Amino acid sequence: MARQFFVGGNFKANGTKKQVTQIIDNLNSQELPKEVEVVIAPPSLYIDLAVKENKQPTVQVGAQNVFNKPPGAYTGELTAEQILDVGATWTLTGHSERRTIIKESDEFIAEKTKYALDNGLKVILCIGETLDERKSDVTLQVCARQLDAVSKIVSDWKNIVVAYEPVWAIGTGLAATPDDAQETHKGIREHLAKTIGKEQAEATRILYGGSVNGKNAPDFRDKADIDGFLVGGASLKPEFVDIIKSRL
Ligand code: PEP
């Protein structure tokens, strides 16, 4: 089954109003392939700006995080309703920086994912193992546990894109090899087939994330279960466009 190539750009807590505008201006000035779905996730303060500045029909704007409840007395949080209100359509959940630094649990991430989906957002659900877990050979068990928290409470996965991001590869310049990434993606899809059903597992896009750049992105092109990328550092640079075009 053909799954549409997908590239996400996670700006993290980087950039100013001026820099975010420059990144989007650069995207606007390019001829982007119509067949590639692109989502950019600027810092929450600049989501509104990004929605207004973006002129590319294939580029959508997302949040990097979302809360698991409706608007209310939750100081510092960002709700799905507010994200949608400013015209963004996606959110990340479960990024490893939130799992490890902010100590978000699998269950909390699953609740956020469900709340976002139930209220009309699409979700890039991030999963992945730490270096210690990799060394202990429990990569797939960790991914399965993170996915199971979501599949326990979400049965319809059509608006979920999974991003497999080994923690040791994020921001380190040490991307997983295409073969290693493919092996894990295959394992993730097989696991999803058991939990959400073969048909949904086949349709779900699984992105690779971790030190992807304009140079190494084409190396992943022949990997059957790698349906795109989630990009951090390189999404702030002009080479993001090379990643978007890496499957042409
Ligand atoms: C990320 O944070 O999602 C990521 C993949 O970062 P980087 O591309 O910088 O490794």
UniProtKB/TrEMBL annotation:
Instruction: List, alphabetically, the CDD domains matched.
Output: TIM
Instruction: Identify the keywords attached in UniProt to this record, alphabetized.
Output: Gluconeogenesis, Glycolysis, Isomerase
Its domain of life reads Eukaryota
What is the top EC class of this enzyme, as a single word? Answer: isomerase
Named in its record, the pathway it takes part in is: Carbohydrate biosynthesis; gluconeogenesis; Carbohydrate degradation; glycolysis; D-glyceraldehyde 3-phosphate from glycerone phosphate: step 1/1
The UniProt entry, under PROSITE patterns, shows: TIM_1, TIM_2
Question: For this protein, what reaction is catalysed?
Answer: D-glyceraldehyde 3-phosphate = dihydroxyacetone phosphate
Q: Which EC number(s) does the record attach to this protein?
A: 5.3.1.1
| Oligomeric and partner information | Homodimer.
Which NCBIfam families does the UniProt record give?
tim
The family annotation for this protein states: Belongs to the triosephosphate isomerase family.
Name the UniProt record assigns to this protein: Triosephosphate isomerase
